[in-house]
Design goal:
Helix content is about 20%, strand content about 55%. By secondary structure, the protein is of the alpha+beta class. The protein has one domain: Dodecin subunit-like. The longest helix is centred in the middle third of the chain and has 13 residues, at about 20-30.
């Protein structure tokens, strides 16, 4: 079996509805520009506040993806 190499990026997703939707938004947006995502780990959850009210839920997510060989 050949060795594999993975890269890890951190992204922050946001949602006005929930932390779950914020995390999903982070993964979905990343998947639109990076192929072969493997694992997503929620690192931190927070909320954006305005005038003492929650206006957005945010999820910081670490996502790994497989690095493919470049073939000529």
């Amino acid at each position: 079996m050949a060795e594999s190499v993975y890269k890890v990026v951190e992204v922050i997703g946001s949602s006005t509805e929930s932390w779950e939707k914020a995390a999903k938004a982070a993964v979905d947006r990343t998947a639109s520009s990076i192929e072969d995502l493997r694992v997503a780990e929620v690192l931190e959850l927070d909320m954006k506040l305005e005038a003492n009210h929650v206006v957005a839920f945010r999820a910081r997510v670490k996502i790994s993806f497989k690095v493919h060989e470049i073939t000529s």
